[in-house]
Amino acid sequence: MARILIIYGSTDGHTARVAEKIGAHLRGLGHAVTLYQGDRIPSGTDINAFDAYIVGGSVHYGKFQSYVGAFIRTHLKALKSKPSAFFAVSGASSSGAQGRIEAETFSTPFLAQLNWAPARIEQIAGAFPFTRYAFWKRWMMQYIVRRAGGEAHARKDYAYTDWERVERFALEFAASIAR
Ligand SMILES: Cc1cc2nc3c(=O)[nH]c(=O)nc-3n(C[C@H](O)[C@H](O)[C@H](O)COP(=O)(O)O)c2cc1C
Q1: CB of 19 closer than 6 angstroms to any ligand 1 atom
Q2: Beta bridge partners of 3
Q3: What domains are there in the chain, each with its CATH number?
């Protein structure tokens, strides 16, 4: 049994769901999982007290949440000294293997400038909850999604996440800790 810390960034809530799912799979394997949104880590949390780390964030205008970067920068030593992985949630990843390659153009420079090279980096397709966006955000996201060839009805929410992929990522991470 390992103590695993999951830290995630989420602007519209979907990456929170992905992180929770990863946590649930790890708990199902008997691990003790602690999960926080990166800007809501309780003060006094001893980051070094964990055996392994998973950090994730979502892409908005090509960038991850700045607090995710701040967490990585602050705790780089711990992340480098124990098993760790990164997952990136994006719209780009919803376009299959080619989309995941495109999504790497966000995560690769982000992690490189933080000088962090986790053993595992997973690209996960995100969601477009149009009904929950405010007017201008919805209008703009519809424009962007349609321009990329996607469907974008204002009264529909779209979720492209491959939950089996999320499960595989969690199980493979657990297996890498056990080795
Ligand atoms: C304002 C906005 C900008 C976005 N920009 C990008 C982008 O540059 N590239 C991309 O692949 N996906 C982009 N997305 C898609 C998000 O990554 C996707 O909606 C993801 O599920 C958001 O996760 P969250 O709900 O945890 O914030 C954008 C979404 C929004 C709402």
Answers
A1: no
A2: 32
A3: 3-126+163-178 (3.40.50.360), 128-160 (no CATH)
